[in-house]
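Workshop exercise sheet. Pairs work together: one partner reads the sequence aloud, the other fills in the structure field after running the prediction. Swap roles for the next sheet.
Pair: D.N. / O.F.
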Amino acid sequence: MILNIHESTADTTHQHHERSLDSLKRLSLAHSLVDKVVGEGNLKALQALSLFALYNQLSGHCLTLTTLNGMIVSLAQSLGLHRHARRFKMGVGEVELRKRLWWWVYVFDRFTSILHGLPPLINDVDVDNDLPIDCHLNDLEVTELSHPLPGERTAVFVFLQYVSLGKKLSRILDLLYTTTQRRDGARKITDLDRDLRVWNQNLKANGILFDIGITGLQHSSDGTNHSYESTTIWLELMANITMTLIHRPGLSFDDTTPEFGNCLRACLDSGSAILSLLEMSNIPKWLRNLSLVGPATIFQSALVHIYSQLKYRTFKPDGFPSLDTSMGMVSKGISILTMESSRATQAQGAFYSESVSEIIKTLQTLLSSLPVAQGLVETPHVVNDGVPVSDAPDTFDEQTWSGNALDSLNYMTASDWMGDPSGPFMGFMDLGES
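Structure field:
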């Protein structure tokens, strides 16, 4: 599986890769050994299943993640990885390995929960294990851990930020996305927003420079122009998606309250950042899969701009994007989805491509409903089919966008599932090979 993971992530210039014959043989072998590996029930078996699950995640095989998640969570808990090291007599090297493995399983469980809209399998009250340490671990038999020099960090540092985001996502799910504990939503959103921004400031103190909800290559607090490495793009994408998840429940508030406006503005800012990142950095598909970015995320990041412009057609509060800015963001979403559709034709079959095409047509139709014809912008944008958006239909008026904002924004959330290329895993049909 390590070879397959390397093969799927090595070439960042292409979104899809033709599977080599050796790769397919390895995948077939891995699939045939799953039951045997689960039966081993030891730490090495959990590592093997984790690599198998990671490959599925990187490859976008969504439908297999729930089954694999159940396997690895059950095995990890049976091995006691969720318990503190003081309960066991182990060396510091093995303790550190167990912590790293456990927290990867924990975050994978949260990501699977968000992706499929299902409750997580791991209950936070059952976990008392410490977070991993930023250190070198080359030998499990060591008596002391090797820490980096002051001002330096190891590759584990990025993983620790991944775990930190996973814990924040867990809190968000518990406080905002359950059928209970719905009181004081505005206060919870404010606290979660502040917590995420503090995490962002700590990242900048460690040289990873980006600001949540800010678009553009030069947006660090000190104005430094820094190169966008994969880890920075990945963390920035995840941070903006997390911020969107924090504020989306606020769109169910009364739209005359300040809290509604604050949440809508945060969704607009983070949605713009997501679209700009996807457009300017040409993010490889495996990195998008690891960041929970699919067609639905792109669609809703653009749709929130259309909602905002039609909601505040006659009065625009301070801090909201102009009509021209929103039109540009929607056009970015259409452009990104168009590239996705053309690539999907070859990699995932005609059904998936047609599904993405329907999303594109929906955005184009909604974009044409913006009030450009009223002379609010000087140069109207042109959508991909060459039709100026000034040819606006009369079917979209302010009444269409009254009421609960989530009724509009939740449309076509399941687009990420359409034509899921499940691969030769767990008995699912591989649409990518048909």
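Discussion prompt: The first helix runs from residue 2 to 10. What would you look at next?
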